[in-house]
């Protein structure tokens, strides 16, 4: 690990103008410390935010919830309100990582974790995300775990979070604070970006901007489900995951929200599939038709070709399960 | 100098912020029960309790723990005074080489408290959490055993959990 300076912050206001280019915020460290050991992240200074007062889950007004950035994945998944009203979020969190990691990983950090692309992690291989302009090892290499939607010739990495997929389906919003103290809000759906010709940028955050929390709006009607397809039944990243909230009234889709994980550089809100389903009969045929609408632009790179039919079938299966249990709300 | 508490004893941290909690325990405090496996948070051999919660000590910078309480395998039981979980691992042959065992035991100890707290896992259905072999396999997935003693580890944890229940203790 490269040497760095360490500074612990006592209050959000401590940030002031002190954030500079070589700084990284440190919270749970489950991803950042690992990346520093690999010398993929080489901060000049760590600003330890882990003792800031951002660890609470509070009533967010209008039936919503306000989740502090430092709430651990364990605490968020276990919260009785989340379990009851946002079961999609709890299920997604519990499908990710291990108890040891979830005890340490935070809400803000989970959103900002980096890809687990083999070539990003292997510093002996080219990677445009790690070293812009160097080339991409995955394009013609081992790309079984890589993206099928929204890729570029620069990068086909995926975003690894389960939690973020649920948040995108739930229309969650991140609260951000800039070093000058100004604040803004951004839908989680708009936080992450597609690689384009700047794959080194995972998100649209400005330098020094800090995630202070996530707002969950009141959940929409319907059954919430999260399904994660992976190589092991526990402790593996998603090959494909689907988060869905489906409300069927009189046999027809009254409202539906869908997000995919494991298929793109960001959690993928499937708006084409949602539009295709709106007002349609809740049938297997229509579920597959909606999946086809979303996946029409999907592109395989050899090793990950299987993800296209897998995503299609997984979405149809999740919608079938959700429609079959109309009225239930627990994932 | 920054200080942490390990098994009730004060341990002074060195002044290099790169030092992980794992290296502090093994190199600084001389507590070599906690093992270094992958050093990347993937194997669970370094599992310890940080303020009562199980964590991978290899991914925690020691300086972040200033003022915190750490419990290692040495704090659960040692020598002839073994914790019921350790005794159950011996009874059920829950290991071969033993390298992952301290992490397994610390992880299982915290896991039983999580179950007692009613914290759900990926395989928990509706209603109350009930310990089962399926729950143990899911909840212990962060502790790898390359000898493959998993079946006996699950049996040992189930056995110890039953014994602790009979004693009326969450896991102590």
From TrEMBL, chain A:
The alphabetical list of record keywords is:
FAD, Flavoprotein
FAD-binding PCMH-type domain location: 1-221
What's the domain of life for this entry? Bacteria
Q: What SMART domains does the annotation carry? A: CO_deh_flav_C
Q: Name one GO molecular function term.
A: oxidoreductase activity
Key word Glycoprotein present: no
Q: Gene3D superfamilies under this entry?
A: 3.30.465.10, CO dehydrogenase flavoprotein, C-terminal domain (3.30.390.50), Uridine Diphospho-n-acetylenolpyruvylglucosamine Reductase, domain 2 (3.30.43.10)
Does the keyword Flavoprotein belong to this entry? yes
Pfam families from the xrefs? CO_deh_flav_C, FAD_binding_5
**Can you say what this protein is called?**
Xanthine dehydrogenase YagS FAD-binding subunit
UniProtKB/TrEMBL annotation, chain B:
* Record-linked SUPFAM superfamilies: 2Fe-2S ferredoxin-like, CO dehydrogenase ISP C-domain like
Q: Where is the 2Fe-2S ferredoxin-type domain?
A: 1-76
In alphabetical order, the GO MF annotations are:
2 iron, 2 sulfur cluster binding; metal ion binding; oxidoreductase activity, acting on the aldehyde or oxo group of donors
**Domain of life here?**
Bacteria
Q: Which InterPro entries match?
A: 2Fe-2S-bd (IPR002888), 2Fe-2S-bd_dom_sf (IPR036884), 2Fe-2S_ferredoxin-like_sf (IPR036010), 2Fe-2S_ferredoxin-type (IPR001041), 2Fe2S_fd_BS (IPR006058), Aldehyde_Oxdr_Iron-Sulfur (IPR052914), Beta-grasp_dom_sf (IPR012675)
- Keywords in alphabetical order, please: 2Fe-2S, Iron, Iron-sulfur, Metal-binding, Oxidoreductase
The record's annotation in Pfam families points to: Fer2 (PF00111), Fer2_2 (PF01799)
Q: What's this protein's name? A: Xanthine dehydrogenase YagT iron-sulfur-binding subunit
Species of provenance: Microbulbifer yueqingensis
Traced from the root, the source organism's taxonomic lineage reads:
Bacteria, Pseudomonadati, Pseudomonadota, Gammaproteobacteria, Cellvibrionales
